[in-house]
Design brief:
Structural class: alpha/beta
Helix content: 40-55%
Oligomer: single chain
Bound molecules: pyridoxal-5'-phosphate
Radius of gyration: 22 Å
Strand content: 5-15%
Largest sheet: 6 strands, mixed
CATH topology of the largest domain: Aspartate Aminotransferase, domain 2
CATH architecture of the largest domain: 3-Layer(aba) Sandwich
CATH superfamily of the largest domain: Type I PLP-dependent aspartate aminotransferase-like (Major domain)
Order of helices and strands: HHEEEHHEHEHEEEHEHEEHHHEEHEEHH
CATH class of the largest domain: Alpha Beta
Shape: globular
Number of strands: 15
């Protein structure tokens, strides 16, 4: 019987043989960037593909192969590539002037759109989701006068806020009380025990990078109840999940946190982040008030993001478009799980709506711990096999559908996964 290691080695060799230009670019890149990389999540073995161009839902790599793009830039690329309305808005913004060093109407417009859609009293813009979360946590600490924060084990809120297997060594030095996602009673007790020090509880209503694992309504209700009772700021990181419902996942759950953070697609594909929510917290940043909190950022109100973001959210990712995209994702996830059942393989597709993650596991996945014993090599093999079939997803199995992905593209993925299953049947029993 073939071993997983042998299959993986062969798949990597085949990948390397197909992609000599990407390999050459990796050699050049490694001379000037550590490991040839400037964004860790994109590094894959034996070396990453270098994409030369993109159009619609298609990526073309440096060696001329086309791929169906189902990664959707880790959920930021919801509009697909070169959406005509996005291009038009970007050109208009460029023509009006880029680096104004001044207030302008564009930021007012985007703030109006975002506060209305996501039920925020007030909002502030940043350049990334990481910064939005850093600022939301800082606001919570100032507001409460307390120091510690409670993230979830396995939570991801940006490069300096990463909590898989404890805190990442490059994290911002917050005092953290780690909680277990979806563990209602343990977390309730932890909040009670640490209430005097806790400024904020922060989580995604569905873990995105953590494997597309939805929070249970009971868990979110408990968090809302306990934080409200103890004066702790509840922050929902909706950088990814806000795309899953017209008003974000908090609206779908019917649970409003004190602060929300946004990012990714809301800026129309430009660099973007935002934090906002309750007036009494956000007003800390009002510069007309004595001792207001500073919030800097040269590009916070850059005209490109402000203009394109407002157009994207009002003209393209409308409530109808959002509902349709998420319905397509739900159908695709169900088809994948049917396929896994039919072949009786240990695979599972998790997520909600247009965000999907395929795991090499057959059991219920309700927390990051449920994934601990899964075999990383099987994920790599799926990734490499799908590339061979012309389909691009994240190496960890993550996908985020863009508006350019059609029903027949979804069928193509199901067929490619079926080819992987039949090809690798011996390995997955
Ligand atoms: N929060 C969540 C839930 C994310 O998924 C990410 C990025 O993947 C971030 C925050 C960080 O956003 P950015 O990469 O824009 O800093």
């Amino acid at each position: 019987m073939p071993s997983i290691d042998t299959a993986l080695e062969e798949a990597m060799d085949a990948f390397a043989a197909r992609n000599p230009t990407s390999r050459a670019l990796q050699v050049r890149a490694a001379a000037v960037m550590p490991g040839g990389n400037t964004r860790t999540v994109l590094f894959t073995r034996p070396f990453p593909l270098r994409v030369a161009k993109a159009q619609g839902a298609t990526l073309t790599d440096a060696d001329g192969h086309d791929y169906l793009d189902l990664l959707g830039e880790y959920s930021a690329g919801i509009y697909g590539h070169s959406h005509p309305r996005i291009l038009e808005a970007a050109r208009a913004a460029l023509e009006k002037g880029l680096n104004l060093g001044a207030h302008h109407e564009g930021e007012v417009k985007l703030a109006e759109v975002v506060t209305k859609r996501f039920h925020l009293d007030l909002v502030r813009f940043t350049n990334s989701g990481t910064e939005a979360n850093m600022m939301a946590l800082a606001a919570a600490r100032s507001f409460t006068g307390r120091r510690s924060i409670m993230p979830m084990e396995g939570g991801y809120h940006g490069g300096t806020l990463y909590f898989a297997h404890g805190a990442s060594p490059v994290n911002a030095p917050f005092d953290c009380v780690m909680a277990r996602f979806n563990d209602v009673e343990t977390t309730r007790r932890l909040i009670a025990e640490n209430a005097d020090e806790l400024a904020a509880v922060i989580l995604e209503p569905m873990l995105g990078s953590g494997g597309c694992i939805p929070a249970s309504p009971e868990f979110l209700s408990m968090l809302r109840e306990e934080t409200a009772r103890r004066g702790i700021v509840l922050i929902f990181d909706e950088v990814m999940t806000s795309r899953l419902h017209p008003g974000g996942l908090s609206e779908k759950f019917g649970i409003e946190p004190d602060l929300k953070t946004l990012g990714k697609y809301v800026g129309g594909g430009m660099s973007f982040g935002a934090f906002g929510g309750k007036r009494e917290i956000m007003e800390l940043f009002d510069p007309t008030r004595p001792n207001s909190l500073p919030h800097a950022g040269t590009f916070n109100n850059n005209t490109l993001t402000m203009t394109v973001g407002a157009v994207a959210m009002t003209d393209i990712y409308t409530h109808e478009a959002c509902n349709e995209l998420n319905a397509r994702g739900n159908i695709l996830r169900a088809k994948l799980n049917d396929l896994f059942m039919r072949y009786q393989v240990k695979m599972k597709a998790t997520g909600q709506g247009s965000m999907i993650c395929i795991h090499p596991a057959a059991h219920d996945i309700t927390s990051p711990e449920s994934l601990e014993k899964t075999d990383k090599r099987l994920r790599q093999l799926l990734f490499l096999d799908l590339l061979e079939e012309g389909v691009y997803i994240a190496e960890r199995g993550f996908m985020a559908l863009s508006l350019m992905v059609t029903d027949s593209d979804c069928e193509r993925l199901v067929e490619a996964v079926e080819t992987h299953i039949t090809r690798r049947r011996d390995l997955q029993v």
